[in-house]
# Entry
Amino acid sequence: MICQDFRIVNLNEFSDKKSASFDIKNNEKLLFIGCKDFNLTINVLENVSALISMLFLNDDSSFKLTINLAKDTQIEAFCADFAFETFKNNVSINLLGEGAICNWHLASLSQKADNKSHSISATHYAAKTTARIDNYGVAKDDSHLTFLGVSHIKDGSAKSKTSQNAKIMVFDEESIGTAKPILKIDDNDVVANHAAVVGKINEEHLFYLTSRGLCEDSAKALITLGYLKPILAGFDDNHQKQIMDLIEGRMNNVRY
Amino acid sequence: MSTLRIKNLHAEVEGKEILKGINLEINNNETVAILGPNGHGKSTLFNVIMGHPRYKVTKGSIFFDDVDVLALSTDQRSKLGLFLGLQNPSEVPGVINSDFLRAAVNAHNDNPISTYNFYKVLDNAVKEVQMPFDLATRSLNEGFSGGEKKRNEILQMLLLEPKISMLDEIDSGLDVDAIQIVADVIKKQQQKGQGFLIISHYARLFDLIQPTRAIVIINGKVVLDGGKDIIQRIDKTGYEFIKTELGIEIQKEEAKMNTVSIGSCAVKEAIKK
Ligand SMILES: Nc1ncnc2c1ncn2[C@@H]1O[C@H](COP(=O)(O)OP(=O)(O)OP(=O)(O)O)[C@@H](O)[C@H]1O
Ligand SMILES: [Mg+2]
# Structure
């Protein structure tokens, strides 16, 4: 059970060094505020179970995150991407010790002329390791959003499970969503699956909401909020509110 | 008095003509029962009246008094006073029912309703349809039982106070008590001057609400428009008499299509564990 308050780390305070490394403690909830061109490493030592969240709000241009998981560890990782312009996020999840588990959740909203790419990779180096990667995104206006990532189960990682799941909701004819999750499996005794869906907002949902009088923009905003909202589980109250406001603001305000 | 007038309405979906010249008029002091075999265009008619994007009107007109309904967007049709209670209401993950209901109520008013007033109105409506209040705080229709979804449709109708409501198989999935509750709501709204177009395959609901007329849609056309005695007749003997007495051949329904779409977020499931 994780019951502590969040420890908030603003990486801008480390920005002159361009990199930082943290050992996360058991039951800890670490919330990182992203920063431009940064290289972050998180080590999860044996038997540690914890939560990591990332929040990107600025022109963070390029970010690198490495999570190293030792034996019998469990990490819930949340990444909320409201960065703008060009953003490249490279995440490597290394499941180094037996029994390590990492569940990764990403919510990304790209708008205007944003060009953003998230590459989320998980490598299984040990037996009985589990990685679940769920990437959810919305691309609107003239933006381009890409989800990549390789889930790699190395030889000798028997009984491991891996999944890559990418979904992008594309709002306009001009916006582009690309989702290319890849699986590389070197061991036979494993469970692996991947799914990628890039598509328009559900027409039935939109019809349902507009048939009750909501204009199309309000209906889209409400649906988008609902689609990205599960990411809130990884944040404290203040940041939850900030994320909600950001989604609503960027989707044209809903009238409440 | 308000009148919805449908003249020679033709509509197609994916290039296939479904409605082949519908003529129908209804005033807001009427309740019209709509019957017809599966797949003959009943739901299509409702969807076309509400402006569903997948259906294309190729001919004909729909006027609500002097307003050209076909020229309006779906939300404008709602604001005009038309309401569609869906046969299969969508589940919309993450959209909280009460947020949606409030946005809908606000869309129908010039000034946003206060939180206090909204909850008062919502509480009354929830009691009227005898729906557990927690359904209002959950994701819209997600994981609702068939009957709960239908009650939620009636709840929306109560909150929006339309002039004419179209209810598509509102009684399917409802238990006997729930049918009575829905019938009571309909009767109360009839008193207030709300008009109804109601599709159902069963006589039970119609027995309770006493429609003023009944029509039968076959092959995309209204083939019968008359007294409510038609309902009992169809309930007892089916549609065979349409063929023997009116000489109309009933076309067979074709296989239904499946659609794929995005809408749910697996993150939530992961968190629930
Ligand atoms: N969105 C759609 N895409 C493809 N075909 C459709 C669509 N909507 C309706 N149809 C087709 O149009 C025909 C009429 O369907 P409709 O739903 O109007 O029937 P109905 O009279 O309401 O039947 P039921 O009593 O079974 O509800 C059917 O053949 C159906 O498959
Ligand atoms: Mg139908």
